[in-house]
Amino acid sequence: DYHWPSPFIDTLEGLLYEGKQEGLPDRAVDFVAQLLRCEPRVNNESIAADWIRFAYHDMATHNIDDGTGGLDNSITMELDRDESKFDFIDFPNKYLSYSDTTAMGVVLATVECGGPVIAYRGGRIDAKFPGPPGVPVPEQSAEDFIETFRKQGFTKEEMIALVACGHTLGGVRNPDFPTLVPPGDIEFENNIKLFDGTPQFDNTIVTSYLDGTTENLLVVGANGNTTLTSDLRVFGSDGNVTMKSLADPDHFAATCASLLGRMIDTVPRNVTLTDFIHPLPVKVAGVQLAPGNEDHLALNLTLRLSNNARQVTLHWADRDSESCSSGACSAAPINSTLVSTRLLQALGLSPVKYTFSTPIANTSVSKFWFEVDGKIENNGGSGYVIEQDRILFAPDRGAFGLLLKIVAAVRNDSTPSAVWMDTYQRDGVSTVERHPPVNLTLDESLPAAAGYNFYSASIPGSDLTLDLFAEIDGKVYEEEFRDTHFMA
Ligand code: HEM
Fold first, then answer.
1. Which of 79, 217, 388, 406 lies at a CB distance of 3.0 to 4.6 Å from 180, suitable for a disulfide?
2. Which fold has domain 7-264?
3. What Gene3D superfamilies does the annotation carry (predicted)?
4. Global confidence as pTM
């Protein structure tokens, strides 16, 4: 699908494939950045392992018999239960549901640690109430485990593989299982004994089990005590047939991609997930049309291509037209940068981001498109349409200070009866806070430019998203999803 993604898909795509998204709060970027490293922290603490376990525990409330539960963030209301203790899961943002973020954590953790690419969907809905208990505890019998996983939607063979896929990362913690793991060297720190001795997402968990060299405490126990040897009971529950098949690393990787994908896509029956979200082969972002420093409009945007190109040109058509009357409606990028991430590399891509920042002579823009090494990229035929240019965000003319000065440019070929904005505060936790509408007034301190007058308002706050509105001749024009981030 080549069309402009919706802001929702765009946010998911950006976070997933680029590890960041313009305009998202720093915490979201930090969250992904943490996953960009797989190395365990002190005493084998691994953020990657924590995300995978967290996701499984959240999903474990699923009941296939009545379609309730699943990956729905109910875990955050279940955290006082003994089986679900997590130290440093910090949820990043509110553009996504928490459960979509958790699912993304699984995808990124897996690939960052050298594992396979898990296909990702969005659209999970966070629960408002805790679910029933569903997380298995290591004291249980093989029969109990098989029934627990059946309820969660997995066969016995799938259970064996899914546990092996999960337990390739992380290990058992001293504070939780002091009879299995001795305390760490550093006082008060967790000591974690890795399941398979490696921090990588690999099948050592399987091969060391099969060849008898494993030190996995859930297989070997401690001091001859087998109460807690749940992996031994799980892995052996089909006479090691499944484990033997997983000794092939490619089969292990493919099986984990499929089963972890099913794990994160296990949602309550009433939730419909999006299609798989693939990296867009041609991705346009950060589009900003506004009066520039000189007396004309300027168009800023970025274009991401899956691979490097020799020649990239931006073309545009005049306002209210399919063509360019001046014959001078094209521009080269001002720079290009490699934007690869581990996930994109794993998909065989090495994307490049081209930045355009061009004056628009004569008249404004109705739509734009690109020419890439002689091939036209025009969003599946329609071009990238600028819906309206009656009201535009003018971030360059705004200012940070005790108050935030927000400036809108309004075309001066007609007089608006009202100019106003809705603002959304982005910090805090679970919901976006929408402030009451604020009027913008004609700002005499900013001289008209490029056929636009400037309207402004100064408001408290620092990190906002905006929808700007102008009512002109009884019609409301809107510039949506702007971000004070662009003012920096
Ligand atoms: C029979 C089912 C399972 C049992 C009994 C079980 C048991 C355990 C236990 C006892 C620990 C150590 C926790 C601690 O020390 O606090 C652990 C860790 C972990 N489990 Fe499982 N588990 C099961 C299934 C799964 C599944 C299906 C996954 C994911 C696909 C998973 C992922 C993990 C991960 C990643 C860790 C390491 C966490 C870390 O190091 O931070 N487990 N599990």
1. 217
2. Peroxidase; domain 2 (1.10.420)
3. 1.10.520.10, Peroxidase, domain 2
4. 0.86
